[in-house]
Structure formats: C-alpha cells, structure tokens
Specification:
- Two copies of one chain form a homodimer.
- Chain A has about 350 residues and is of the alpha/beta class.
- The first copy, chain A, has 14 helices and twelve strands.
- In chain A, α1 crosses α2 and α5 packs across α14.
- At the A-B interface, α4, α5, β2, α6 and α12 of A face α4, α5, β2, α6 and α12 of B.
- β2 of chain A pairs antiparallel with β2 of chain B, so a sheet runs across the interface.
- Chain A binds a DNA duplex (30 and 30 nucleotides) through α2 and α4.
DNA sequence: CGGGATGGTCGAACCGGTTCGACAGGGGTG
DNA sequence: CACCCCTGTCGAACCGGTTCGACCATCCCG
C-alpha cells in the first residue's frame, strides 16, 4: 500500500496525493475527498523511511543513556518517561542509545547513519567528549545537565551547587555541626560527573561558610553500598549527627545503616539531600529533600530540542532549575544529649 | 557524503561500493582496500533511512510502554535497560512507544509507517487488544507477560500464579493464618493485567489449600497508597500477621504503615511478595521475595524477537520463569502473643 | 478583450541506498 | 579449441516518498 497505489485508485497522480496529504499546494475539495476515501479504505500510512529519505527529517530524537551503564537510578526512569511523553506530544519518536556499552559505535549509528534529527544527553560530565563531539559536528543536542562550559551548549540543568548548599544551611539552622556528605560512586566522580562535582562543591563551600565539620564520601549506587557507607561514616566520626546525599539509590541502605546503629531519624540523626520526590516518599521517615523535578526537566529538554530543530541557527538556550527543599520528616534539631549507642528496635 | 561520492573518489561504480560493504558479491582485494581508504578518510556511514527503504529492514525494534502511563515502576526500568542493551548486542536500536497516551496513534506510527521491524510489549493484559492486533497483522512481536491465550503468542513471562502461591506456602509454613494480599491498582486489575490476575489467583487458591483466612486489596503504585492500604488492612482485621505484595512501588509505604502501627517486621508481622531484587534490598529489613529477574527477561525477549525476525514463519516460542523465593529478613514465625498495639518507636 | 494572477494537476527528478541482469576476461574441462 | 563457469565490475531499476517546473483553466482587472 504505497502512495502510487493510492494515486491509481483515486485516479490522480502520486504528487497530487502527496500534496493532498501535506497541504503544501492547493488541492480541490473533490479530489481531496476522493483521495481521503481511498486512504481510509486501505488504511494507508506513508512509509517513514521513504519520507525521511526524501526530506531529511526522521522525526525521531535520540535519548543518549548514561555512560555508567551497569544500572539505572529512579531519576533516570523519570527522565526517560517524561522525554518520551513530551516527544510524543510534538510528534517525535524517541530512540534509546546506550552510550555506555560502546560509545563510538552507538554515536555513529545515531549521527553518522542519520537515525535521529537531534539528541538529548543524560548524565553529563564537566568535560564531556560526547558534548564536544556533537558541538563540533553542529548536531542539534540538548543536555540534561551542564558541562564546564555551559554557555556554548543547549541544556536544562539543576543547580546542584545551590541545592547542596541549601541542604547544608537547613541542617546548620537546625544546629547540626558535624555533617557527612554522601556522593555518587567514586568512579562517576572521577569521570567528572557534573552533579557529583557541583554538589560536592556547594556542600563544601556552604559548610565552610557555616563553620561545620564535615567528611565527604563516595558511595555505590545501591542499597548495600549505602549501608556500608553509613557504617564508615559513624566509624570515622561517631559524633556525626546529619548527612546530605545526592545518591538516591543508596538512600534505603543509608537508612538501614542508621537503624542498625540505633540512630533514630530524625531524633538522633538528620538526613537530607537531592532526590526525586517519588523516592523521597518511599523511605520512612519520608525524606526532607530538594526534589529533583525530573518530569519537568525531561519535558523542558524536549521543548528546547524541538525549538532548536525548528530554527537551526538560534543561539544556545538553557534553563537552570533550583527547586526548594520540601520539608518532610527526616530532619530535626540536633539532640541535646549524645546519641544512645543502641536502640531497642534493631534487627539481629 | 553518500555512496555516490565514495564511488566517484574510489573510481568505481556505486554498486561496487555497496558490494564491498555488504560482501554479497565478491570484490577484488585491490578495489576493496581502495574503497575502504576513501570511506575512512571521509568518515562515511550509509544512511539508515535509505537503507531501510531499499531493503525493508529498519534494524530497529519498538518497545511498547505500559498503557498505564502516569508513572513507571522500578521493574519497568530494569526491563527497558536490559532490552536496550541486549538489542545493541544484536545491532538493533530501540524505539520507545508510549502506548498509554494515544494507543492507536502510536501503534500506527510503529506499524503503519514501518518504523520498526518488530516489537516488544510490556505490561500485558489477559485480553490484550494490542496483542490481538499485532497477531492479526502478523507483525513480529514478543510479549513480556502472557495473555489468556498464551499458545498463540511469543512471550517471556513470569509464573505469577506459582510465585504468589510460593509466598503463601512460605508464610503458612511459618505458621501465619491471617494473611493479606496487596495487588496492583484497582484500575489495572479491572483492565485485566495478567500479573495482577494470575497473582491473585495463585494467592487465593494456595490460601484456600492451606486453609488460611485472607483478605485481598488493590493499592496505588506509590508509597502513600501503600501506607493507606496497610492502615485498611489492620483496620479490617487487626489480627492479620502477614502480607504478600505484587506492588513494588507501594512497598515503602507498606513498611511505613507497619512502623506507624507499631508492628515490627518480622517479629510481629511478615512481609513477602514478588519484587525485583534491587528494590527488595532497599527496604529495611530486606524483603524476602520472589525476585523478578527483569534483566534476564528483557534479554530473553530480545533474543526471541531476533529469532523471530530471522525466520518469520517459525512457530511461537515462549519462556516461563519461576524464580525461587530469596530468603532475606522480612518474614519469620508468627508470634505466640498478640501483637502490641503501639511501639515506642513511632513518629508523631 | 487581452494579460497576469491564481488554482489545480501532472510528470519527472531526486533522496541514498540495494540488487538484478549483463558482460568482460581468465581458467579449467572435455 | 570450444565451451562453460567463476570472478569482478557496471549500469539500470527499484524502494516510496517529496518537490520543482510546466501546463491548462478560470477569473479578475484595467
């Protein structure tokens, strides 16, 4: 069922069918209706590859996955979902590209083979060769996150510096003096992940400003690592009374570590950080945190990309978000007495 | 940089370049090397749309998203990640299609416009018109989950009946007599979600077999709903001592509800269910559960689909998995005394 | 009433690959 | 030596759309 078939049955030429469909040239009512009837009868839909070949637009955007690869956090899930939905609203499909496995190969697929009109990158690093590469190739891309040269690029990002600082101030206001910072995994920090770096930065500076005693940690993206990390924290400085985490996936483990150590949240120990709302609400007590507006960010990224695709030479645009801290139940004033060493409510 | 350009610079015809690349006809070593040099110099990559148009294969598979839409569970994330990676290994891209928003439209995009060679469907319902539709169209598809007529289709699925029954037996063996079942949301059950139905079935039958007193509930896919659900459970029958859940996203809320009610897990109350390992490990105490092998299922689905694409007329194949229960820390023998009405460790 | 817009349609070229048939030349076989 | 087969290459057709230029009617305006 190709356009030629439709043309034949409607008794017109192929170009007339095309114009009837696209509206790029006038077509009389009679013929348009005749064509439409045939199309409806046969359930005809124009072939996407042929169309893409002819006009150079695939109406597909590439969503480039984390270079991390081994697994995904809940935040990433929210990004993916919102990007897909926003793209659908603009009549774009989304092609997933795992930049983790074999970056060059999948980039070649996306760009070299022209599978997509533009790309959205996740998990940006401060020095990100993927971004440099796309920039050099003048390929339309939007980052979720900022590189170290944010002016060059199109992006939507979270102000992790401000967010981490806000967490520090919140804790300092509650009287906490010894605070730990739980970052993403060592490997990602080394690789230059922007959220990990800027978050650490914001934390460190704000803590210095408030004269806090701090220790910073990296922690694997899973619950067992979180638990282990918490044990290290209390081992290194048992007088720690609060922590700030950027590590969503470790959150459950951190809580477990606290429970095992007999520290009650928030009575003996306060926890806060930067986490998507959905995950902040799954732990008990619910996490007081700067909620990552993942859905909004995905939508914004698509909007920027579509805008860029529509006018290829527009100057870079960006959007920096800094959501406020949502007060829930995991932080409180520092206790006046030293924390008890073990609660009654601990598992064996 | 198209194939004609390469041909010109290498001093051969376009078809020779094509054959040098595909190997479908012999090409002399000399010319092959000459061509390869030009290709390397120019960084040429064949255009995917043109190729797809010419040979009818897009080398893309569609991943059809839940009809549920409003948000995604962790299990789905694992499916997506593993499907993308497995597909990459077979040199396929993955196109995401939100069947939730406007099912017909996105199906038309995938199938009618020939954007993909085949599809993987998630969140199958017992009567699933998407599956019927694909079957009628002879479109190569593989389901993650089973319809009510599993013989017709290609699928990889979890034996929720057996899994739910295993949970019941596990609890019964520990002496529990009054058990609640926490299912996916009402809406999904009504829509005929297979996991919800077969899970409920397995639970009910096994409970009858063991002579247990049970109540079954549906519960929204989020923590607050889980908490509310647990309150209902204890309100309806305060003597309940255990629950089985299929609802991963509600898990955190169920735990919170228990904590608020002063029921200690697993001393006063046992919790088990069917949940992906990663999420079973984030709660404290860690959940004893039948671990959903999401990564393996995604990989298997891709393998089946690739097989089906390679030989279009093969008879349906399927794979039914029933992972064993992983013993962690959330279940235990039923207490000999009635549970205390409130603990000392509850938040205000 | 002549001439220039305007509306409506067609044929042909093009996008960038793949593939088929044809053919030239060399080597082996009867 | 005639024949055939195989290797290596080319030109042309094709996949299914879009778009440009040309053409013929009308219609409006001066």
């Amino acid at each position: 069922m190709n356009i030629g078939e439709i043309a034949k049955r409607a008794g017109v030429s192929r170009s007339t069918v095309s114009y009837a469909l696209s509206g790029k040239r006038p077509v009389s009512n009679d013929t348009r209706e005749k064509i439409q009837r045939v199309i409806d009868d046969l359930g005809y839909r124009p072939n996407a590859s042929a169309r893409a070949l002819a006009n150079g637009r695939t109406r597909t955007i590439g969503l480039v996955f984390p270079p991390a690869g081994d697994h995904y956090t809940g935040m990433q899930l929210d990004f993916i979902g919102s990007v897909v939905e926003a793209a659908a609203a603009y009549d774009y499909d989304v092609l997933l590209s795992p930049s983790g496995v074999d970056r060059d190969r999948s980039f070649q697929r996306l760009l070299g083979e022209r599978r997509v009109d533009g790309a959205i990158l996740m998990e940006i690093r401060l020095q990100d060769d993927r971004v440099d590469h796309l920039l050099a190739a003048h390929f339309p891309a939007v980052c979720i996150g900022r590189t170290a040269q944010p002016e060059r690029d199109w992006w939507v990002g979270l102000d992790h510096t401000v967010l981490a600082a806000a967490c520090v101030h919140h804790l300092a206001d509650l009287g906490h003096r010894r605070v730990a910072f739980v970052n993403r995994p060592e490997r990602l920090l080394r690789a230059g992940y922007e959220s990990a770096h800027r978050g650490l930065d914001g934390f460190t500076k704000a803590a210095a400003e408030r004269g806090l005693t701090v220790r910073t940690y990296t922690c694997g993206d899973d619950a067992p690592s979180g638990q282990a990390c918490l044990e290290r924290i209390l081992h290194d400085d048992p007088a720690t009374t609060a922590l700030v985490t950027l590590n969503e996936a470790a959150l459950g483990g951190l809580y477990r570590g606290l429970a095992h150590a007999g520290r009650h949240v928030p009575r003996d120990f306060s926890v806060t950080g930067v986490v998507a709302a959905r995950w902040a609400e799954t732990v008990t007590p619910q996490l007081t945190a700067a909620d990552v507006p993942a859905a909004q960010m995905g939508r914004l990224a698509v909007e920027l990309l579509v805008e860029r695709l529509d006018q290829p030479d527009a100057p870079p645009r960006h959007q920096l978000l800094a959501p406020p801290i949502s007060l829930r139940a995991s932080t409180g004033p520092v206790g006046t007495v030293a924390p008890v060493s073990a609660g009654s409510d601990v598992n064996a």
